Predict the 3D structure of the following.
Amino acid sequence: MPLVACCLICRCVLKQNLLILLRAVLLGLLAIVPIMFIQFYLHQLISMLFFPAHQHLEYLSRALIVNGLIEETIKMAVLFLLPAKRMPLKLFFCCALICGLSLACFESVIYFLNSLQVTEMNGVHPFYRQILLRMFTANIIHLCCTGLCGLCVWALRHHTQAASAFLFAVIAHGYYNFFLLYTVSLRYFAIAAILFAAVECRVQYMKLRQNETLHKQFLNTNGHTTVAGDSLRAPKT
């Protein structure tokens, strides 16, 4: 439902191309394959290699490396399959958000099926808690972090700098998963990670949007037309 709603908003309200939005959905499905493989088969190996003797350091390193660095790198890689040079910032950003939400929804389905074994032993309550957790937190963190990765990809394809967007995505996703590992009140700090990702998503988008606007104004002032793949760097004088 969240994925369908997001696609409808982008299509009906923002008037974005339906085919490119569907392509973003498929990219989210493509990204989930290596991510699930890493989480189910390489998790233990990474836990053994990084801080095996200290529980909290192990949790933090695993969250930052697996959920943060590796997952966001995979998301960023699949977003390079979109023609960022021929797409305006708003359209590419919408595609990145849909890709992230698509990944989150497919990931939730996998976790829901996996949690059915838990519900058979403990009743239905753990299952519904996981549904609510995925709907209101995991979907949002994937949405925002993939948006940040998308901004970094778009900036790279347009020859400008936005490496901090990817770094913020790694940090936010890593700390989100780290705090969720705890059953005490510490897990509520995951909300702070979500808010951080959402705020940075807006900040980074507005920076690139301003650069895009200034670049178009410069081209119009000097009698040029906007060409796909033009650099957004400040013009030399």
Q: What stands out?
A: The CA atoms of residues 43 and 66 lie 7 Å apart. The two ends are 51 Å apart (CA to CA). The mean pLDDT is 80. Helices lie at 2-13, 18-49, 55-79, 89-122, 125-157, 163-180, 190-221.
